[in-house]
Design brief:
mainly beta; 21 strands; 3-stranded mixed β-sheet
Amino acid sequence: MADQELWEYVFYDWDDHVAIDALPLQDVNFTLGLGATGQITANIPLYDEQYNIGRVSAATQPERTICVIYRDRRFVAGYRMIDPQDYDSDTGVMSITGEEIPAILAYRFVNFTGPRTATPYNEFKWLIEHSADPADTRWLKWIYGSGGVGSVTRAYRKEEFMPILDQANELTDMPSAFDWWCKPEWDEEFNRPAFAIKGVGRSAPEAAGLVLEFPGNVERFTRKTRRGLLNRVHGRLQADTAGTILETVDRPALRAAGYPLIEQVFQIDSATSRADLIAQLNRIADTAKGPKLLFEWDLGVSDSTRWWGWELGTHARCLATHYLYPAQPDGSAGLDRPMQMVSVSVTPQGAEGERVKVLTGEFTQAVA
């Protein structure tokens, strides 16, 4: 099937869910990511006679329209159009940008004032639905999956204008909570595209059923480290009745092993008590034992690469043999361990055809 028949980009109106137009975009790249961090970028050559600016403007109106992507008539992704939407007169090309649907919650605030106690899942669901309007519930139709364990106590102060998405991500950052992503799902009731927010629990990591191997189905991999080591963390909480509460959590084992003192202070606005402040500081300390490792695996696409069926947040088996990871004495891969799938990035029609990159991560890599 030709590329232009394999891929289709249909633009819908956010408010009424009605299809506006289909545009043959160029230089497309889109990503699905944990925490609704994915985006789409694409170009529209306005000098091409198949376009006209009225048609393009109606379909790509920032903050209003949704680009829904179909691959071989399968609904695989969707993004709300946002700025930047740039144009260069030298090339006659307009570039457009979109973000995953839940990202709109970064621009809405939690209005509730006072403490709340709930399971991580129920509190997350309350936040997502906190300011939902009818269009939200049509596009984000389902919230399901694995939740966290235990309970959390949270406080939201209306006068501090706390963004909903920030609070949701802070909540799910806790080790006892869960990861989440925005999964494209077809709404069979109304025969239209929609999305689910799917939780992925951490208490029993779920296998993805996917093997990423270099050399093998992976053509190239890169590893990046992100600074993470802290062995003393301080927390500050401004309480309505007790004034400023200060607490410190140490990790003396790292100091005893010869590492220097590395400390940082955090303002924990969502904590409601000294115990809650200490619990959140322990979470920070537990996830700051060493560098965060990010691996990007560059795949060539074959008939077996059905990336649209992969579940973000699950763990793929990652194998590599190279200078960084020499082969084991028995000839097995130098690197062989499960890692969480953080994102999937797709270039539908690049110079080398369809390309897929998978980002996996290790976020609590201990140094000692």
